[in-house]
Design goal:
Elements (H helix, E strand, L loop, with lengths): L18 E5 L2 E4 L4 E4 L2 H4 L8 H13 L10 H14 L3 E5 L2 H18 L6 E5 L8 H6 L3 H4 L9 E4 L4 H10 L3 E6 L2 E2 L5 E2 L2 H14 L2 E5 L23 E4 L10 E5 L1 H4 L15 H16 L2 H19 L6 E7 L2 E6 L6 H9 L1 E2 L1 E3 L3 E4 L7 H14 L8
Parallel strand pairs: 3-15, 5-6, 5-7, 7-10, 10-11
Antiparallel strand pairs: 1-2, 2-3, 4-12, 8-9, 11-12, 13-14, 14-17, 16-17
Helix pairs in contact: 2-10, 3-10, 7-8, 11-13, 12-13
The structure holds pyridoxal-5'-phosphate.
The site of pyridoxal-5'-phosphate (PLP) has 15 residues, from α4.
Subcellular location: Cytoplasm
GO biological process, one term: L-arginine biosynthetic process
Keywords: Amino-acid biosynthesis, Aminotransferase, Arginine biosynthesis, Cytoplasm, Pyridoxal phosphate, Transferase
């Protein structure tokens, strides 16, 4: 329901639809119209909407205890930390409430690491088209001038190189003695679904080892099974020093995490970082339940199978389409790049196809379906997107 005189700040361009309930990959508007969700609240509701086990655990924990603060031991936080570290090969976790906060923790670790190495002005290497959040530090790390415009002065201490380009990285390494860490997404999500090659990530790992840099991987969108592995970087067989998570970790309940191993895991001492809400019993117990369900139902492997079906389906259906420049993806992160600006397709998809999609970088349709989709629903997404792009039925 669009509000003529809204009391909300105009930070978002919202579609004129509001949903009243959801189940699995389906959503219903207040008036009962059914929609198919191919974006999962931007890679958040990977277990689908209204998952009965998540609902039950939220209800139970809400009746027991919501919050006590980090002044005390929190058993569910210990458990979730242990589980995530085991899956990711990490040693310690810091919990917060969002992706940007997880990256803030990582950036602070990088600065501490630099100062420990006697680098007075430590610099962090970030990528063109990268996305790391909207706080001032993470916005400064983000490689999108349009999102940064108006918020200058940005935070200093970042150097930027092209993504997936090892030569550019080596040149920057030779020129800049103050680099102490690299922050990178294994698949650029907001940047248009670009997948870093496994060779690049392995060479990056080796470069970080020789230079003493922290390798910090932003798995906020690509992690939690979405790419077909628990974490996107695992396709390259590397282990980072720092990993950031959020989005699907709580299936809609806000939670973020910064994981670390080795020296990076020991950098924070009491009082150096904190969050009032971070790691509360409710969010952490839900995180544990999300991991239980994903492991039991083998959802990372399922995402690989469904992702393959989605990608080959799109490639088959859109083959030779005059407007389609590229179809990219890994697991259930898929992008269809068009030869033109296509933002209006988001509204058209809702209206004509009852399908939720997003457009990133102005020209790329992004699909992030829930990991619990059926094959039929994946084929349905392909059919609806194809119709959307069919001449005669849309302005393409
Ligand atoms: C969404 C996202 C973030 C920011 O997460 P918020 O929870 O919105 O702060 C950071 N990095 C990546 C890769 C993301 O996709």
């Amino acid at each position: 329901m669009p509000h003529v005189k809204s009391h909300l700040m105009r930070a978002y361009a919202r579609q004129p639809v509001s949903f009243a309930r959801g189940s699995g990959a389906c959503l219903w508007s207040a008036s009962g119209v059914e929609y198919l969700d191919a974006i999962s609240g931007v890679a958040v509701t990977s277990l689908g909407h209204g998952h009965p086990e998540i609902t039950a655990v939220i209800a139970e924990q809400a009746g027991l205890l919501l919050h006590t603060s980090n002044l005390f031991q929190i058993d569910w936080q210990e458990r979730l930390g242990e589980r995530l570290c085991a899956l990711a090969g990490m040693q310690r976790a810091f919990f917060c409430n969002s992706g940007a906060e997880a990256n803030e923790a990582a950036l602070k670790l990088a600065r501490l690491h630099g100062h420990r190495k006697q680098v007075a002005q430590p610099q962090i290497l970030v990528m063109e088209n990268g996305f790391h959040g909207r706080t001032l530090a993470t916005l400064s790390a983000t490689g999108n001038p349009a999102k940064q415009q108006g918020f200058e002065p940005l935070m200093p201490g970042f150097l930027r190189v092209p993504y997936d380009d090892i030569g550019a990285l080596r040149r920057m390494a030779d020129e800049s003695p103050n680099i102490v860490a690299v922050l990178i997404e294994p698949v650029q999500g907001e940047g248009g679904i670009r997948v870093a090659s496994a060779d690049y990530l392995r060479e990056l790992r080796a470069l970080c080892d020789t230079r003493g840099w922290l390798l910090m991987i932003d798995e906020i969108q690509a992690g939690m099974g979405r790419t077909g592995a628990w974490f996107g970087h695992q396709h390259a067989g590397i282990t980072p020093d720092v990993i950031t998570l959020a989005k699907a970790l709580g299936n809609g309940l806000p939670i973020g995490a910064c994981l670390a191993r080795g020296e990076a895991a020991e950098l924070f001492s009491p009082g150096q970082h904190g969050s009032t809400f971070g790691g509360n019993p409710l969010a952490c117990r839900v995180g544990c339940t999300v991991l239980d369900i994903m492991a039991r139902d083998a959802l990372p492997a399922r995402a690989a199978v469904l992702g393959e079906r989605l990608l080959t389906g799109l490639q088959g259906a859109l083959k030779g389409h005059p407007q389609v420049v590229a179809i990219r993806g890994q697991g259930l992160m898929a992008g269809i790049e068009l030869a033109r600006s296509c933002k209006e397709l988001v509204g058209l998809a809702l209206e004509r196809e009852h399908l939720l999609i997003t457009v990133t970088r102005d020209t790329t349709i992004r699909l992030l379906p829930p990991l619990i989709c059926s094959e039929v629903q994946i084929d349905d997404i392909v059919a609806r997107v194809t119709r959307l792009l069919s001449p005669g039925e849309s302005p393409v």
